[in-house]
Amino acid sequence: MPNAQFIQISQPNAAAVAQELLQGLCAPQAMTSPKYLYDALGSRLFEAITELPEYDVTRTEARAMQLHSSDMAMHLPKNACWIDLGAGNCEKAGRLLGPMAAGRYVAVDISVDFLRSAIENLQRQHPDLPMMGLGTDFSCGLDLPDSLNLDPAQPRVLFYPGSSIGNFTPEQAVGFLRSLHSACGTAASSGLLIGVDLLKNADELEAAYDDALGVTAAFNLNLLLHINRLVGSDFKVRDWQHLSRFNAEQSRVEMHLRARHALRVQWPGGERLFAAGQTIHTENACKWTVSGFDALLQSAGFKSTRCWTDPATRFALFWATA
Prior knowledge:
Oligomer: single chain
Distance between the termini: 32 Å
Radius of gyration: 20 Å
Strand content: 15-25%
Structural class: alpha/beta
CATH superfamily of the largest domain: Vaccinia Virus protein VP39
Number of strands: 13
């Protein structure tokens, strides 16, 4: 059994992180990147969210993959290098590597330490499949390092499940998808397999991001504790309220944290006053139509596309060749 290799190409830069966060907090509409929702506790809370009855994205995606796996195997290249973006526990890719006859597996996440145990477990399930963990922040675009020693003649399947593409605005999504198109390389039949949450009733969407048990609220509010650790601020969770709303014009659910009363937040060298009701915009979750996302893929340079959905057309899996 080959030993999985691990490469960390980007290291957290505390000063740069603090600068990014404070720049967002001081903007006229205060905002943060959704990636800061996922500290250790935030990641566990998100896992709980995927089990909630109101939030069916993960379950629906799994059903769509299971339903269409045979047809997917007919259209995706064999012996391809699977590049799993935001791999996490590697479970989603792990269910496909065998049926899709993968030739290599590269798991990409912000930290190889986070990936290590998942890849080692997956390696035991697929003892003859070469595997590698790549630690990098690809939120601004994917740049695959030469140290991966990718074979330019081997087709690549870039795998981006879970509808994380919804965190980008359409303009940001085009730029990000163009970087994925470039990362597909030049081998024939390479492409992108991506999950997309589809547009639904507004009330249903808002409930999915504001569940009755308050798990999503805890997930959002935990961001304040994470910011306190990263920038030395003095946010108090009790001063803030979770807010979820569907923006029909932008076709997206927005998550905000709303100040319960007028307050002052301080950090070393600075502060900000928030009026009662003023918000921090913490996440977007854009929802797409099949035709709209197909057009987005085309505008990013992808050629032919194929789409599979669950029976109720709530979630879509797109295969787009480069």
